[in-house]
Automatic annotation (TrEMBL):
Name used for this protein in its record: TonB-dependent receptor
Positions of the TonB-dependent receptor-like beta-barrel domain: 343-992
GO cellular component: cell outer membrane
Origin organism lineage: Bacteria, Pseudomonadati, Bacteroidota, Cytophagia, Cytophagales
Signal peptide start-end: none
Family of the protein in this entry: Belongs to the TonB-dependent receptor family.
SUPFAM superfamilies (UniProt xref): Carboxypeptidase regulatory domain-like, Porins
Subcellular locations according to the entry: Cell outer membrane
Length: 1060
């Protein structure tokens, strides 16, 4: 024991002295990271290569490493959009100071990209087309929503004329062939590397639930290429927003923004973000925004109001073995979706044919309506008291709420194995109260359609028209001659309506019978009452869309390096539940700059025809429709002409997606890398859908409220007791589609729950693949080649839009996208460039268009089509001097329908009148052959003025290619000033010259038609006759409006950002 003590004691003393010596030499490495203007770069990453140590610079650009042992280290500083710098430092007895001045890497060629790849690589090393926007670039764009920001990406066009939300995004000509409502149909909008939503449907669109704010670090965009196998249902590309994380010191920033529009409405917004260290390698970050936005177009309420909060915890594991990010988000935002407005036929000025000329820049088709409407899914025939109701208040707009939380784990398991795991759970709630579609109705109604727009049926196309239809009475068993007598008794009354302002009660116009022409009575304006309506009324559809979405997404992958190969094996799983309750009403209003709801009444006929009254049963059934002093209400007090009559869609949907993939990146030589990936995907759609019946099924000609003197509820769609399960067959009468019902329960009879033999609902499975190669020509240049084939299961809208009161027994088609691209990248100090030639072929794309024909509404039959696009994307930054630079990108493309079949309904509701037309070879609508985006910027001391100009060439406004949308440009400008290292000011203006370029053509607003149903000279039926109301020249001569949606008008804003 003594020997042991004698031996251990000096060893212990020596060890203590050694540790004390080493500790005395442990020092601090610190410094500041700046740009070439001397401004600090907050959130820059500084690492000690070869160790686990890494820090984030604070708001002043300062960084610090504590307790660094003696030795020589490689210190690396990096920031998105700037070149990475490395230098060796030696730690000895004194603290080390090492400042960095980073030069701009204009196209972020040296930035490591994590989106759309299995192995994070720099843009220069990747064999895909990548665009990265850092927080500075995002700030300079002053985006008016997510869609507007994405136009910063070459090859991408976004229709953001709807406002902050609801954008339609098209990458490389991959435009929705049929459903313009689904804006992100072939691309994936992501946050933290996972889709915002695992599936979308109808109006619960992905960008409704995503916002960029001051806590956004960067956005990475992948076009085509590897997106086919690295993400679900997104063959066209990926847009991934990545949030900031905390650093070694507490720091943050706050920004206040104020602005105004040309309509004297204002904008106020506050953004804030901050973060810092926690214990044992953990950091935190918290950020968000709140804004009140009066709106770019005129509404009697704030168009956008609300905000979000985002937070994360970040852990860097010891020895550089990986990281863990845990994050959450809460969004509560109310938004407005601007619809098409009435323009003249040149599409350059507002429509002036009414008494209130439309302003192309600031008018809307918003109607201020607050109405109680029957809750259609709860209406029951056995109710003897008032039916349940819902409220349509247009001022409630779109209420979007999101709760989400997830994690992102990356960990080095050792021996060449790496683990990556991500998961997110989300809940989305949406109340969508907006307007959809525009139809013009003549103020003077006609009893039957003729060759001109002016003689359409007007308000009689809705419930009141049932009183003038013989079918209404013959369906109740009335003999044809007596039915004709009933119709004749109502004609004088129906042709004598009075129109009122629904809010003030002012009489806007009054009609009376003017005579008989060719045996048909006609109406004229009553000259004793001034006409304050003009020639037309506006009919539009109040949407009542209530969506509840629950979403779970997770992915897991293992990465193994074997020699020169980097293998990745992984799985992606998601389950999305979407419950919809969709009701659509109809409302009448004035046609002009500020539409006002119109109430319509007409007098009741005094007495029942004698021939009908002589039949006791008929007198009892129809005598109550007559009164010497009675007044019929064609609308309710708020102008609602049809309650829940244009749609009734109650569905429960579950989309389960399981994908398994493998990828190999082979470093063939020091210059050449080749990668190949395969992805197998299974998508299962299950759910059910309710059936419906008209309001006459509740109370006959009394409708839902059982009052015969109100006609606005005759076409109400209410629940009929049927529930159809996806993928299930039901018993029908032999040789017909008539459903057989159980004689006792009256329920439809299920015959086979799995007629396809593939399990519940509908199963879609397919294999996608991608192959690419990147060749490093030099240290700053590279070329790449990639071919891929991606697939996409149908959207859940397929089930909602089809199968009306019939079994859902037919699955949709799997869409496929085949792409090829050849690219070149060069990263220079004076000039950086990226050029990509691409080809894409979209097959099996669904076309269905919504038809509104009075109280009848439906979708055209599905056709499956193909498009082909070839093009060239260019992206460059030119640093012409130390002060002057130009950032730009351009896209040249040729997009055509390789195969397109369109069902023309001929303005009828009778399928016997429908016919197919072939639009193959036409250009894809909305896709501009040339898109250019240029941003010159100049530095003057602490200030940086810039100008941005975007130009879009002439495009096709419809699939028929009979409407051309003129070329247009949009000018933006601004100046930012870094007054101190902590304080930055900015003044910015978008659409400075108030361009009114048209982004979406909506048609002439004829009942029972679509935007496809017009052409110079008219459209020929198969029998050679011209389709009524289809000749553009005739429509223009009638001075009828054209509906379209222009670019958002001018916005001017100023902001102050303070960093701490």
């Amino acid at each position: 024991m003594k020997f042991i003590l004698m031996t251990v004691r000096p060893l212990a003393v020596g060890l203590i002295l050694l540790l004390a010596t080493l500790t005395s030499y442990a020092q601090r490495i610190s410094g500041v990271v700046r740009d070439e203007r001397g401004q600090p770069l907050p959130a820059a990453t500084v690492q000690l290569k070869g160790t686990s140590k890494g820090v984030i610079s604070d708001a002043k650009g300062q960084y610090t490493f504590q307790d660094v042992g003696p030795g020589t280290y490689t210190l690396q500083a990096s920031f998105v959009g700037f070149t990475t710098q490395r230098r060796d430092v030696t730690v000895a007895a004194d603290p080390v100071t090492s400042d960095f001045t980073l030069a701009e890497d204009a196209l972020s060629m040296e930035t490591v990209v994590i989106t759309g790849t299995f192995d994070p690589r720099t843009k220069l090393e990747s064999s895909v087309a990548i665009t990265t926007l850092n927080s500075r670039t995002i700030d300079q764009r002053a985006p008016r929503g997510t869609g507007d920001l994405l136009q910063s990406v070459p090859g991408v066009w976004a229709d953001n004329s709807s406002g902050e939300v609801g954008s339609k995004v098209v990458a490389r000509g991959l435009a929705p062939v049929g459903n313009d409502q689904v804006g992100f149909q072939y691309v994936s909008l992501q946050e933290e590397g996972l889709p915002v939503m695992g599936a979308q449907m109808g109006f619960a669109l992905v960008d409704m639930f995503q916002r960029a704010d001051l806590s956004t670090a960067r956005m990475e965009a992948i076009r085509g290429g590897s997106a086919a196998i690295t993400s679900a249902n997104s063959p066209g590309g990926i847009f991934n927003f990545i949030s900031k994380t905390g650093g070694p010191k507490f720091s943050g920033s706050v920004r206040t923004t104020g602005g105004f529009y040309g309509n004297n409405k204002g904008l106020g917004r506050v953004d804030a973000e901050f973060g810092g260290p926690l214990a044992k390698g953990w950091t935190y970050h918290l950020g968000g925004f709140y804004r009140v936005d009066g709106g770019a177009r005129n509404t009697p309420f704030n168009a956008n109001q609300g905000g979000q909060v985002r937070a994360n915890l970040n852990k860097l594991f010891a020895n550089g073995r990986g990281s863990l990010k845990v994050y959450g988000k809460y969004l509560d935002d109310r938004n407005t979706f601007f619809k098409e407005i009435a323009l003249d036929n040149t599409l350059t000025t507002g429509y002036a044919g009414g008494t209130d000329p439309v302003d192309i820049n600031y008018s809307t088709t918003f109607i201020d309506v607050n109405a109680l409407v029957p809750q259609a899914d709860l209406v029951r025939k056995e109710n003897t008291v008032a039916q349940p109701t819902r409220t349509f208040n247009a001022r409630d707009a779109i209420q979007n709420k999101t709760y989400s939380g997830g994690f992102d784990l990356s960990y080095d398991l050792g021996k060449g194995w790496n683990l990556g795991a991500r998961a997110k759970v989300s809940s989305f709630d949406q109340s969508y109260l907006q307007y959809q579609g525009n139809t013009v109705l003549p103020v003077i109604p006609g009893l039957a359609p003729t060759a001109t727009l002016a003689a359409q049926q007007g308000y009689l196309q809705f419930g009141a028209g049932a009183l003038a239809s013989a079918g209404t009475y013959t369906a109740a068993g009335v003999p044809a001659t007596l039915a004709a007598a009933l119709v004749g008794s109502f004609v004088p009354s129906l042709l004598s309506p009075t129109y009122y302002d629904a809010q003030t009660g002012e009489v806007l116009a009054k009609l009376r019978v003017g005579g008989v022409s060719n045996g048909v009575p006609f109406a004229i304006l009553d000259p004793s009452v001034p006409n304050k309506l003009g020639n037309y009324l506006l009919a539009t559809a109040p949407l009542n869309m209530f969506n509840k979405v629950d979403d779970l997404i997770w992915s897991l992958n293992l990465n193994k390096e074997i020699g020169r190969h980097q293998f990745t094996f992984g799985s992606y799983q998601s389950q999305t539940t979407i419950d919809t309750r969709w009701f659509v009403d109809g409302v009448l209003s004035t046609l002009g700059a500020n539409p006002r709801a119109v109430r319509v009444e007409f007098p009741a006929p005094a007495t029942i025809p004698a021939s009908v009254g002589a039949v006791p049963a008929l007198n009892a059934a129809f005598g109550g429709l007559y009164s010497p002093t009675g007044v019929y209400k064609a609308t309710d007090a708020n102008g609602i002409v049809l309650q829940s009559g244009l749609a009734y869609t109650i569905t429960n949907n579950v989309s389960k997606l399981g994908a398994y993939y493998i990828n190999d990146i082979w470093k063939a030589t020091d210059r050449l890398s080749i990668d190949l990936g395969l992805r197998y995907e299974r998508v299962r759609h299950t759910g059910n859908k309710q059936g419906w019946q008209p309001g006459t099924g509740i109370g006959g000609l009394g409708g839902v409220d059982r009052n015969p003197f109100t006609t606005y509820d005759l076409g109400t769609r209410v629940y009929n007791g049927d529930l159809f399960t996806y993928g299930t067959s039901y018993s029908t009468v032999t040789g017909t589609t008539t459903l057989v019902r159980d004689p006792t329960t009256k329920q439809i009879i299920q015959t086979n729950a799995d007629p396809d033999g593939d399990g519940d609902g509908f199963l879609y499975d397919y294999v996608s693949w991608s192959a690419g190669a990147n060749y490093r020509l030099s240290a700053t240049t590279a070329g790449y080649l990639r071919v891929s084939r991606g697939n996409k299961a149908p959207e859940l809208d397929y089930y909602a839009n089809n199968f009306v009161n019939v079994p859902l027994d037919k699955k949709g088609a799997i869409e496929s996208v085949t792409q090829a691209e050849l690219g070149f990248k060069s990263n220079g100090r004076k000039a950086s460039i990226s050029a990509t030639a691409f080809y894409s072929y979209l097959d099996n794309a669904l076309l269905q268009l919504f038809i509104s024909n009075g109280s009848a509404s439906f979708f055209t039959d599905a056709t499956f089509n193909a498009t082909r696009t070839m093009g060239l994307e260019l992206e460059t930054v030119l640093n012409l001097t130390n002060r002057f630079s130009i950032r730009g990108h351009a896209t040249l493309q040729d997009a055509k329908y390789d195969r397109l079949s369109y069902q023309n309904t001929a303005g009828s509701v009778n399928k016997a009148d429908f016919f197919l037309e072939d639009f193959s070879g036409n250009r894809v609508k909305d896709v501009a052959p040339v898109m250019i985006d240029l941003t010159p910027a100049y530095r003057i001391g602490k200030f940086s003025p810039y100008v941005n100009y975007r130009w879009f060439s002439e495009r096709q406004g419809n699939r028929r290619n009979s409407i051309q949308l003129p070329a247009y440009g949009v000018l933006a400008a601004g100046v930012t000033g870094d007054l101190t290292s902590k304080l930055t000011i900015a003044v910015q203006a978008t659409n400075l010259l108030n361009s009114n370029g048209i982004l979406l053509f909506g048609g002439y607003g004829l009942q029972g038609t679509t935007l496809e149903d017009v052409a110079v000279g008219g459209i020929k039926r198969p029998d050679g006759t011209i389709l009524r109301g289809s000749d553009i020249n005739v429509l223009n001569a009638l001075n009828s409006p054209v509906f379209a949606r222009p670019v958002l008008p001018r916005q001017v804003s100023a902001s102050i950002t303070y960093r701490f």
